[in-house]
Amino acid sequence: MGEVREILTWERFGEATRELAQQIVDSGYEPDVMLSITRGGLLPAGAIAYALDQKNIHIINVEFYTGVDERLPAPVFLPPLPATNYLDGRSVLIIDDVADTGETLRSVRNFCDEHASESRTAVLYEKPRSLIACDYVWKRTDEWIAFPWSSLPPLRNTTRLDN
């Protein structure tokens, strides 16, 4: 992995999510539904939801990264998927922590676009190699990112795709 060069602290996370929410407000976009990509998007989505006074939040669980810079061949949707009637004809804001390769965001956006009237993406970080250009980005970087919620190793390893 090399030296960690991009470190997001809890304090800076608060500032980042507020600035990202301000971008959304400034654009005039008012999503009907917020869709958080778990796990990385949970905390940004919660903070942005408070800033936008949005209570219609859903999650979608997608497994792609299995370790530091280790991925599955393609993103895998894990159950339960959001009921599509929550998305039908609505505008959806998809939130994640980072658009690294962009594969996960692209998969979720394609899922939403089958049902929603419009979908946009918001991330804290976007990497230059991302397959999609996100609509709202707090910071662009090509460095490895240490998030405050995932910078320490798990206390136990129970992650399995067959749960």
Describe the model:
GO terms for molecular function: glycosyltransferase activity. It comes from Propioniciclava flava. Keywords: Glycosyltransferase, Transferase. The chain is of the alpha/beta class and about 160 residues long. The protein has one domain (about 5-145): 3-Layer(aba) Sandwich (Rossmann fold), CATH 3.40.50. β2, α2 and β3 form a beta-alpha-beta unit. The protein contains three helices and eight strands, in the order βαβαβββαβββ. The strands form two sheets. Strands 4-3-2-5-6-7 form a six-stranded mixed β-sheet, sandwiched between helices. Strands 1-8 form a two-stranded parallel ribbon.
Q: What is the architecture at the second tier of CATH?
A: 3-Layer(aba) Sandwich
Poorly predicted ranges? none
Radius of gyration: 15 Å
Just give the CATH class.
Alpha Beta
Question: In terms of structural class, how would the helical and strand content be classed?
Answer: alpha/beta
Shape: globular
Biggest sheet, spatial arrangement of strands = 4-3-2-5-6-7
Report the helical percentage.
Answer: 10-25%
Q: What do the pLDDT scores average to?
A: 91
Number of helices: 3
Distance N terminus to C terminus?
29 Å
- Report the count of strand segments: 8
Q: What does the largest sheet look like?
A: 6 strands, mixed
State the CATH topology: Rossmann fold
How many structural domains does the protein architecture include? 1
> Topology as H/E string?
EHEHEEEHEEE
User: What percent of residues are in strands?
Assistant: 25-35%
